[in-house]
## 1
Amino acid sequence: MQPILLDTNVMVYLFDQNQAAKQARAAELLPVLQELSIARLSAQSLDEFCAVVTLRLKPPLSPAETLVQVEHFTRSFLTLPVTSMVVLEALRGVRDHQFAYYDAQIWATARLNQIPLVFSEDFNPSVIEGVRFVNPFAPDFVLERWL
């Protein structure tokens, strides 16, 4: 099975009580990916997760709850670092593909770590330089198609 890079929104929706359908999808998706050991995270996504769930989520998670969840994610999924090469490749993605910078970091992390698939709602479904973007919250999404 091919590895899959998870964008921040997949983790955040697990705790977003205001998005019931997306919360249910995240709750269905994450355990399967954990069991199959195919999902990867970027350290950037963990950073963004912390900021979103403690500052923007209504109701927010406490720092203690956030720590527990980040510990769980890091035990469950291989976490890839944001390196200088990722930053340089992200800047190339901004220049060549007009990505927003932090979206470009997700693309660059996948590309440089040879991860052909990214689950995110932040990209249009597409393939860019060998990296395919799939929205796991789309109505027609079926996980088995990507396993």
## 2
Amino acid sequence: MVRLIVREVAEARGVKDATDLARRTGLAYGTAYRLWQGEVGGEGNRSVGILTLHRVAKALGVKAGDLYVEEDWRTLQLATA
């Protein structure tokens, strides 16, 4: 399972909130907010396009792969049991 860590990466680079993320990336506020809240991918079942991740990564000065972590689904099942 993939979990986005956009908020953590953005905050580490001085982005204060979803509004600031939207401004820096040129994304619509709703998209930036969902990324900020982690409401895409994972259990939220909303997808995020690679071009969107690339756009965020470029604005933050990181690689797209730095914006998510892969978690072992077995570990997640044990944690929620």
## 3
Amino acid sequence: MKKYFLLFLMLLVFSNILLYSQSSFTNFGSGTENDPYQLWTKEHLIELTDSVYNDFYDLNQCWHCNKYFRLMQNIDSVTYAIGFGSFKPAYFHGGGYTITADSSVKIISPPFISVGPLFSSIGGCIDSLTLNGNIVIGFEAIGLSGIFRSVGILGTVSNCTNNVDALYSGIAYLNYGTIINCINNGNVASAGITIQNNYKVISCINTGTIFNTVSTATVGGIVSSANNGHDCISNCINLGSVTGGGSVGGIIGSLSGGGTGSPVCLVSICFNYGYIIGNVGVGGILGMIISAYFKHNISISNCINTGVVEGNSNVGAIVGQEGP
């Protein structure tokens, strides 16, 4: 009897998988906050990619805008980037599940090869998603960043974890929105969280190794370069070693404020425990303030460095160099 019951369960699971793979995700949910579209399979992710791609090139429509999507289980062997073009104001909840990229194939955004990561550009909200695997993008080149290429002005990325190696950064290549409670465990060449921050990075952690010996490379444990913005970078921790050929910081490689009347860029309650080594402008928290003129709109407070910091000149436990 037990054998037949187990066989029944196996058939039930198989039939559900077959049902999900053959059905559109629009058959599961209505796209509202209380009843989001349910994404069960790799095919559902591909279908979402096609929808976002079509919206990007048809300026008269945005089917996915203001809709809610929810990942319902771990999905393996993903071979397509999601949302090439722009994942516009919409909501993708990862449900705490993991998407694993197939290391044997390129992630390709139809109909041509993309240079973007899992999500190309977002203007909406992405939450509670983990990325595993070894992403290969384009012509055998490793991805720009682990999960996102660009976070738009109104975009929010929260509770996401990157576990793959990437060319530049672990979470986002460019950030114009808010990245909060995210973790990078991948090895990257510029920054654990984002290569360029133009707004907010809050409560993020890097454990990956960051290594880039190009003489002009600006490298940071959390952010490579940051511009002025409210609550710029706060409550962040770097645990990985950071090595660069230019200005290097345990949290930020280089930082610039703004002119008169611009918002103050606040760097607060950040901690570096990693080994930091660079050339000129090397700091446990911040490698270089780009211009002394702009430093009046920069505030660094309640930050702690316990890591070893080494460089050829302008080396500091907190800030390495204030620019000319």
## 4
Amino acid sequence: MAKANVSSAAFAQYIERLQSEVTAKKYKSAVDEFNRTLSRAGIESFAKMPRGTLNKYIELLAEQGYAPASIGVYVSGVKRYLRWVEDQGTKVNPQSKAEVPKKRHVMRDILTPDMLRAYVGYADDLLQEPVRTAAILLPCTGLRANELVSLPLTAIRKVDVQLQGRTRRVLSLRVTGKGGKERTVPIIGEGAQVLLTYLSSYRQTRKGPYVFPGARSRHNKKGEIPMATRTLRYAVAQLREPFGMTFTPHTMRRTYLVSLWRRGVDAPTIAKIAGHTNIQTLFQHYLNLDDQDVLRAVHESEGTRNAKAKR
């Protein structure tokens, strides 16, 4: 499989430009494992792959203990790889429909308003800049960790918005996410004031194009490298101990999106803010609504209809 190995290296460079750092890494691992599977089976070219090769690969992943969700990601990566290989002019024998194990969607935890206030307090007490402001902005922007740490100063926008007949200047972010797609992200809660304070104090002492410059080193004397994603993840891990629950920067992303829902923002708008192409992604993985949310949504809409009927 020498030809496949060369292709996989080029594919790795290709996919890094289109996907997030985490997804690209998983896709590369998926392709490496797939090529090893081909080599072990003595398959010398993509054109000679039996139609059931992809399903055999799925079986091997399951035998190795991969969870259904991980298998789904790996299969997506291999499918993307095979399409890319074809685009390069290499013949690929069509594969049978992939029989991916069904995964059970489990809604993950979010922080309640009281927990969120405590989280901000802990961040304020325990962390130093610039990671302090970055940690606080996670639940105020809903950005993925890698999006937040790589945020350029030019992404910060002050926009005049008409609200109830009055003009109000609000702070927002213009973010480039997966696939190079741009979106506008509102900053909620205390996030705007925290960011403005940070920009007028600590950030004034640092150079470079990023909102959160990386630590000074011989490789980063001018602040031209952003804060490492792992630095932010480690900081969040420090803050979760008092809560008795495991949460990550992605927990803050879910918390932000549910906060928008509770503010009355409609689902299509929330999906656009989150950068979700498919609105079902929002409902399946992010909108962890409790009984109060469900009842309030129904009865508030009922009250609105009754008020319109009386006019």
